[in-house]
Request: fold
Amino acid sequence: MKKDFITIKDLSRDEIKKIFKLASKVKEAPKKFSDKLRGKALGLVFQKPSNRTRVSFEIGMYRLGGYCIYLGPDDIKLGAREATKDIAKTLSRYLDGIAARTYSHQDIIDLVRNSTIPVINALSDLLHPCQALADIFTIKEKLKRSKNIKIAFIGDGNNVLHSLLYCCAKSGINLSISTPKGYEPDGDILYEAKKEAENNRVSIAIEEDIKKCIQGADIIYTDVWASMGKESEKEKRLKDFEGFQINPKLLEDAKPDYLIMHCLPAHRGEEITDEVIDGPHSIVFDQAENRMHVQNALLLMLLK
Reply:
């Protein structure tokens, strides 16, 4: 029976640990895994342009001995040129797995329902689970501990935050969130994550006061204010998010050894300043690198 990776909600705490353990092994000794997916083919079904997601999956498959084919917005036109279920059924005859990057989360669900091969959610408007797994992997790698960790997320309640909510709750990490009014995370996801967090004796809190949000935080995380598909709202969002920029002045109230994270691409000068993203506390590009190692672990577990 095939297994898909659509949301961190579906993973147990032990499964997350297993992914991280394998990711560490792949990162430390890549040559040991260089032929593990020999003869396997992964299709990248992308509706959105991509840098990290495309490159990390393509190079990841190459380093595992497999093959990757990119099917971009003009190649398939998911659901427009051809029904999504027909695409899923056809690709299942050629490929061993699909990594899909879509606008609508429903497209991911439709691919899962109609394919006979594993489907990986490489991003949808609702969730970005590969990113969140890589984020928590990076945090544990840098802090070298698993308990008493606090993340402060400043910005839009978007797909990245939704997946972070699930991953923090299941991994036993405290999460403090500060967003402008009207930009809070999805209520159902927040509720589910809070219940899971309680079970693991950690907290998830919404803080109106940004300074209170970052107080005592090990990690200060931000993302763009207008994600892909929200470009028409940019001018309104620039006004609504005024005061939510991660800059040196805000960080005067942070703990001395804080770390900075951003899932990229960054709109420098908007949600974060150059001094911060390029500064000594930034682990943004370590975070970007770990996308490949964590995804390689997922590929090994799903396709092997």
Summary: The domain at 8-128+291-303 is CATH 3.40.50.1370 (Rossmann fold). The chain has a mean pLDDT of 96. The radius of gyration is 19 Å. The chain has eleven helices and nine strands.
